[in-house]
């Protein structure tokens, strides 16, 4: 993944393009394609295919737990982050007097369940200043009624990487009754996780960890009272087919309660292969390769008089840089024609650099961007 030879071997689609858009969609390696073929073969066995399906599920749970630094019993899977957050909303069962903190750098999946609740809690917005979230602002909005703080370790919007230590210290001091939910979708597989003492961790699977759609990792530490959803279903029940199943439900606790129905085995096969691919390379090695590319990109943007929305020149790297430009549509069209792929949305161009990117990708982007400007 970290040399041109292996990039072309594992990601043949990258031979003719500069792909700087992993924050939206990753390019899965060959092993993920092979895993999906294996899933199709196992599915062709009918009911007998359930054996390899469930073996792969448990293997994937083991790999995911290692990646997020939890025990296997503390990790489970949903179909997407939106499902996970709605199950979290169900589990917390917040009332109007309860308070929730969200940020203006968060993805809608983590922010909107509290706004759309049947009895919505009071929602406070932690606003970024100059593209960053400052934990010194938290004492003003936290209190004993705060029940949930939702953050992203890396923002999908501008690439800001939350400084975890001062954040969690402020939360535990000023909101003793609050649960902390952290979305690591834009971090997992790209940077080494430094978040600790969270109550629930959520990650989609089709971005930096190189999987496909239809999956989501949920991690819930086995604390004294782990978060447990109240949703109906069957896969998360101990007594789904027992004689008392119509009298009561016996739910699995914590993360296992979030797998309420039949797993998306295709996504699980893909995720298992992708996680093990990343593990073989090492997230530390990926960051060591890709972080200098981020510096190269930021220096090039500044040289073109373009200010990143969240600078990473202080060394707090993520894989994402974003700029705002009134001619973003025109610029994006030029880049697409040149086979340089970035995200364009509402006047914002977002570039994302992973282990399969190279200095040549950054140079090509900057050259084409200069032409477009």
What does this structure look like?
The structure is a single chain. The chain has 373 residues and is an alpha/beta fold. The protein folds into 2 domains: 4-23 and 283-372, Alpha-Beta Complex (Aspartate Aminotransferase, domain 1); 32-279, Aspartate Aminotransferase, domain 2. It has 10 helices and 12 strands. The protein has helices at residues 4-10, 30-43, 50-68, 81-92, 108-111, 164-174, 265-281, 283-303, 328-337, 359-372; strands at residues 18-19, 75-78, 99-103, 122-126, 146-152, 179-183, 200-204, 216-219, 320-324, 340-341, 343-345, 348-352. It has a 7-stranded mixed β-sheet, sandwiched between helices. The two termini are 32 Å apart. The model has no long low-confidence stretch (mean pLDDT 96).
Report the average pLDDT across residues: 96
Helix fraction by DSSP (H/I, runs of at least 4): 25-40%
Domains (count)? 2
Uncertain parts? none
What's the count of strands?
12
Structural class, from secondary structure content?
alpha/beta
Mind describing the biggest β-sheet? Answer: 7 strands, mixed
* Separation of the first and last Cα atoms: 32 Å
CATH superfamily of the largest domain: Type I PLP-dependent aspartate aminotransferase-like (Major domain)
Features:
Aspartate Aminotransferase, domain 2; single chain; 2 domains; 12 strands; 35% helix; alpha/beta; 373 residues
Q: Could you outline the blueprint of secondary structure elements for this entry?
A:
Blueprint: H1 4-10, E1 18-19, H2 30-43, H3 50-68, E2 75-78, H4 81-92, E3 99-103, H5 108-111, E4 122-126, E5 146-152, H6 164-174, E6 179-183, E7 200-204, E8 216-219, H7 265-281, H8 283-303, E9 320-324, H9 328-337, E10 340-341, E11 343-345, E12 348-352, H10 359-372
Parallel strand pairs: 1-10, 3-4, 3-5, 5-6, 6-7
Antiparallel strand pairs: 2-8, 7-8, 9-12, 11-12
């Amino acid at each position: 993944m970290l040399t041109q030879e292996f990039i072309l071997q594992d990601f043949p689609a990258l031979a003719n393009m500069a792909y700087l858009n992993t924050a939206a969609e990753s390019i899965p390696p060959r092993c993920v394609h092979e895993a999906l073929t294996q899933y199709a073969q196992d599915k062709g066995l009918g009911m007998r295919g359930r054996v390899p399906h469930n073996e792969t599920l448990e293997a994937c749970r083991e790999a995911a737990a290692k990646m997020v630094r939890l025990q296997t019993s503390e990790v489970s899977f949903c179909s997407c982050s939106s499902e996970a957050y709605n199950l979290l909303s169900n589990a917390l069962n917040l009332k109007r007097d309860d308070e929730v903190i969200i940020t203006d750098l968060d993805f809608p999946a983590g922010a909107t369940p509290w706004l759309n609740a049947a009895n919505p809690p009071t929602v406070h917005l932690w606003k970024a200043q100059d593209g960053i979230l400052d934990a010194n602002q938290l004492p003003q909005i936290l209190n004993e009624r705060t029940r949930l703080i939702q953050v992203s370790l890396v923002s999908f919007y501008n690439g800001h990487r939350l400084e975890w230590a001062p954040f969690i210290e402020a939360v535990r001091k000023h909101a003793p009754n609050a649960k902390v939910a952290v979305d690591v979708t834009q971090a997992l597989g790209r940077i080494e996780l430094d978040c600790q003492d969270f109550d629930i961790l959520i990650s989609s699977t089709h971005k930096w960890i190189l999987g496909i759609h239809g999956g989501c990792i949920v991690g819930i530490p086995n604390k004294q009272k782990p978060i447990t959803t109240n949703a109906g279903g069957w896969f998360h029940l101990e007594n789904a087919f027992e004689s008392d199943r119509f009298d009561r439900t016996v739910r699995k606790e914590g993360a296992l309660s979030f797998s309420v129905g039949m797993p998306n085995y295709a996504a699980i096969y893909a995720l298992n292969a992708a996680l093990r691919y990343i593990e073989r390379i090492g997230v530390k090695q990926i960051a060591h390769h890709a972080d200098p590319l981020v510096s190269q990109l930021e220096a090039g943007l500044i040289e073109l008089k373009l200010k990143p929305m969240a600078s990473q020149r202080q060394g707090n790297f993520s894989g994402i840089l974003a700029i705002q430009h009134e001619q973003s549509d025109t610029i994006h069209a030029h880049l697409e024609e040149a086979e340089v792929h970035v995200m364009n949305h509402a006047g914002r161009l977002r570039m994302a650099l992973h282990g399969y990117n190279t200095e040549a990708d950054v140079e090509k982007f900057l050259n084409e961007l200069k032409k477009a400007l």
